[in-house]
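The passage that follows is intended for readers who have already worked through the single-chain material. We present the inputs for a multi-component assembly, then the predicted structure in tokenized form, and finally a short commentary. You are encouraged to pause after the input and sketch how you expect the pieces to fit together before reading on.
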Amino acid sequence: MTEQTYDNFADHYNFAYLDEQTKRMIRRAILKAIAVPGYQVPFASREMPMPYGWGTGGVQVTAAIIGANDVLKMIDQGSDDTTNAVALRGFFVKTTGVEATTKTSEATIIQTRHRIPEEPLKANQTLVYQVPIPEPLRKLEPRETETRKMHALEEYGLMHVKLYEDIAKYGEIATTYAYPVLVNDRYVMDPSPIPKFDNPKMHEMEALQLFGAGREKRIYAVPPHTKVESLDFEDYPFEIQKFEEPCALCGAENVYLDEVILDDKGARMFVCSDSDFCEDRRENGHVGHMAANPITESENRGADA
Amino acid sequence: MQTSEMTQTTADASEDLPLLRVSSATKYYGDRIGCKDVNFELYPGEVLAIVGESGSGKTTLLNCLSTRLAPTSGVIEYRNRQGAMRNLYQMSEAERRMLMRTDWGFVHQHASDGLRMSVSAGANVGERLMAVGARHYGDIRSTAIDWLDRVEIAEDRIDDDPRAFSGGMRQRLQIARNLVTNPRLVFMDEPTGGLDVSVQARLLDLIRGLVSDLGLSVIIVTHDLAVARLLSDRTLVMRRGHVIETGLTDQVLDDPQEAYTQLLVSSILQP
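Having made your guess, compare it with the prediction:
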């Protein structure tokens, strides 16, 4: 049954859903984006069989670069098994027949919604970001004509107005995600809503980073080994989030943690947002303070009985 | 700060050379005249008022001068800080925009056009500093506090939105925002319009003080002859897009030569 559906799909749709002309168009935009790091290249974004906001930009970029031999990993907020990741992984497995993986190290293309994997990426990998609003200046300047001009003339004072406002209101730079960066000393870029914890990973990354915004019809890129600098003030330097405790399941430190509420009495735990990284560590014998321990589990059961 | 001191000396040295030279500036809107054949020179430290009734072309002229609207013909030249006379409309857009946010100021009639209403007063004043590369929060903030003080806005209002300000305060904030980079030339479009009389008087007093302290050159557009009288050294009277009379302000207002200027002057109620 499944086999039959797949065959039907291949009969009616091109490899990776998009037609070859569209892929060519997107590849041209990608090439231009790589040539001008951080510059937003307009492209003729297509309607995709999923709503805007689900990653239509990222999906089009992935569809344009994926080949039959690629290994695809799809993550949503660091996790391989949330709705967005599962749905988009299913989409590509169905339309391309490529192998999917949850292992960061095995993937050649990683499409991500709002995280960079904890494990450092390598030169043979490509990271594709899903971007909701590509324009970092948008909230401060609503006119597209004006923001384009500001990029062209490197008028980025306004970006610091936002950071100034943060400090004036909260005593620190309170922007925690989509933290603006300066790419290759030229373009100010929105890194998509990744936590600012991930910003330093973009700097001099070995892997190619591509960004796709479907609704806004923009593609931009950070080529491998490119300088990516988070904006800040001399007396308020850029800082990443710090966590007071390690991951409750695998005991990892210096990773980005999600807060999980356990009951309505305020109990909570902090666990790795990168689910693959966490599983890997647990397989290798790392145990956090709230991880289920087989021995104590059985003892508890014995006491109850 | 250093650059401004430096330029102060160059400005002094070129005191006798015009800062702005306008030669037959003309703007047509289709067949209709916006302004036609306007010629004048503006010298450093001089305040020039452009007066006339609504529709006389005052604002068109101001927009042409301030590179906000390209004239149909004519030449407008500005002497930059290096002392070179540059044709504004032959400069690159990058240079013009740089001029707009460093060397020049533009005070709008409606403060909401000239301010960022959704960011705090401090950020409004600091924006130009950040635009020219200031990256030290403490310095930016203390400069902002200093400027708010100079325009009589209390220090504890620095983190409030301009939305929370009265009309007069907004206008003063707009002035502070423009003057923070020590501009040499400020354009003002009816800066006292829409304010009540006592607030107007205080604002005019403030502008007059700042202009003389900073040695600013100002081109001020107004339909209010009292504003021209109080602030300006020289006055240009416009009617139907043409400059019909020009001269020292006292001379023009006390001894108007043109029939229209006489009408304008006599239409003011004398208390």
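Commentary: Chain A has a mean pLDDT of 91. The radius of gyration of chain A is 21 Å. How closely did your sketch match?
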